[in-house]
Design goal:
Helix content is 66%, strand content 0%. It contains 6 helices and no strands.
Length: 154
């Protein structure tokens, strides 16, 4: 068994710096991962299991409502992330998914604020609007402006 020492009988002791590094990486007890249920609920196994089932069901209902809102009018993605936040109050996997999502959104926002990217996006938007304007002008020139409620029987 390797204990990190070359001498037999010695035990390697982790330094405080190693412990701090582990906690900063999100692995230690102060990382904020885990259940946020009240202590009296966590101390009773059956009550804590019931609490987790309840949180899961409520989070699932919110996520399903968000998925339904994706093709329908409504803030689908916001509701889905709200359901994930509900799950994150109790489940580590949901906390990790939310951390990953926040990191990706922050990276995308930083990329979008890059002057080169902003200039390119503005240029593409202007080009697209010009094309749409030209096509609308050609249509109006060729067919004119006829309102559907003023169409006479043919």
């Amino acid at each position: 068994m390797n204990t990190g020492s070359d001498e037999p009988g010695e035990v390697a002791v982790a330094s405080d710096k190693a412990k701090t590094g582990r906690q900063e990486a999100g692995e230690g007890p102060g990382s904020g991962l885990g259940s946020r249920a009240p202590e009296f609920i966590k101390s009773r196994r059956l009550l804590h299991l019931s609490w987790q089932v309840g949180v899961f069901v409520v989070g699932l209902a919110v996520v399903v409502a968000g998925i339904i809102m994706l093709p329908l009018p409504g803030p689908g993605w916001v509701v889905i992330f709200g359901g994930m936040a509900i799950w994150a109050t109790e489940f580590v996997w949901a906390q990790l998914v939310l951390r990953w999502t926040k990191r990706k959104v922050t990276e995308a926002a930083q990329r979008a604020l890059d002057p080169k990217v902003r200039r390119r996006n503005i240029t593409l938007t202007v080009i697209g609007l010009v094309i749409i304007g030209v096509l609308a002008g050609i249509y109006l020139w060729k067919f004119g402006l006829v309102m559907p409620w003023k169409i006479k029987d043919q």
